[in-house]
Description:
Layout: H1 7-45, H2 48-69, H3 72-83, H4 87-122, H5 127-136, H6 138-150, H7 152-156, H8 160-181, H9 188-210, H10 222-256, H11 259-268, H12 272-291, H13 297-324, H14 326-333, H15 341-365, H16 373-387, H17 396-423
Helix pairs in contact: 1-8, 1-12, 2-4, 2-6, 2-9, 2-10, 2-11, 3-4, 3-10, 4-5, 4-6, 4-10, 5-9, 6-9, 8-9, 10-16, 12-15, 13-15, 15-17, 16-17
Keywords: Cell membrane, Membrane, Transmembrane, Transmembrane helix
Membrane topology: Multi-pass membrane protein
Transmembrane segments: 20-46, 53-72, 104-121, 128-145, 175-197, 239-256, 268-287, 307-325, 337-356, 368-387, 399-420
Amino acid sequence: MNFFPDKKLLNNSIKHWAKLISITASAQIIVQVLGFVCGIVIIRFLPVKEYALYILANTMLGAMTVLGNAGIAQGVMAEGGKVWQDKDKLGEVLVTGLDLRKKFAIASLVLTIPILLYLLLDNDASWMASILISVSLIPAFYAGLSDSLLQIVPKLNHNVKPLQKNQVAVSVGRLVILLSTIFIFPFAAITILANGVPRIYGNIKLRAIAQEHANFKQQPNAEIRKNILRVVKRILPESIYYTISGQLVIWLVSIFGDTASIAELGALSRITMLITFVIIMIDYILVPRFSKLKNDPSVLKKEYFTIQIILLFISFFILLGVYVFTDYILLILGENYFGLNTELFLMAINGCILLFSTSTNKLLTSRGIVVSPVFYISFMIAIQFSFAFLVDLTTLKGIIIYSILTTIIIYLVRVLYFLIQIRK
């Protein structure tokens, strides 16, 4: 018996993955560089107060998107992974997911817009500015929700080249609109629109890409909806908790700090651009692969821990780079943020831990593995409440340390649950 794989088959597999990784990496480097340039332009040319309002709005946009998705994308990925080679069945899964997304999007807007208005007004924004900022979020919110579902189709089919071209086009469009407006209208609402409008265009192109592999003329399927909702029911409570938890750092800064502290936290968060790049690579390449693996505990564990070792090496080089070039990074951010060396390095540590936690969550949910919401939420609330008495929340440094500690616990809980589940 020949235990060695066919050499031709092995070479073809290596070529396929090398091409896939090179296309994804090169496009994402362009996207992340353009995103970084946009971020620096916004930090340098928006007044501190407007930048603080911009950070508040974008943080709430993340919460709105989480609630609007509520596990639908994970459910679609899990169902799509079973039928990805059948254009009609994959279309049925996608259409069902898009139908559910509309209902959840409306509920998300109703819940989050009043909270956003309160936060903006509490940080000295006028009623007019608060309303304009809230309205300006809608294009990016709508596009973000649709993108998360439409991208699943080309990802499952490893058709990433048109996907990456689309992302590059959207990033270029964002930079062009931003540079055309920020010097004349240095306001948070206009800056948010500069992000949202190109994403609407990208969303239209993305739908055309998805139609190559999925039949959009299918009708929503009751059985598929039931399966997706089964994932949603497990993820939704965690999504609600995550929405509150994700806002917690900003709320703490708002309560114990001021608008300048919010701006500082937002500026330092630019370091997470590197983290975002790695997460996107995993999402495009490894999550679909993990979703399609057979239910073999040894295979799943090997794949998962191989990814963790890769992330460990990546995190080491990120932290080393930030430690060595701290002063230069702060110089790029601008004089308003000089002296935040320790806070910047702590933010990098937080970002790397978040990389492990987010990647684990994406890998697990792609297979429908979700931590029990009752246990997870109860446990994390107790942990966060305890940490609040151990850390000085009156300083930016203390708030970042608080975030690091809670993110570590979240990661460990997910890893342990994964190991327990695959033993079954």
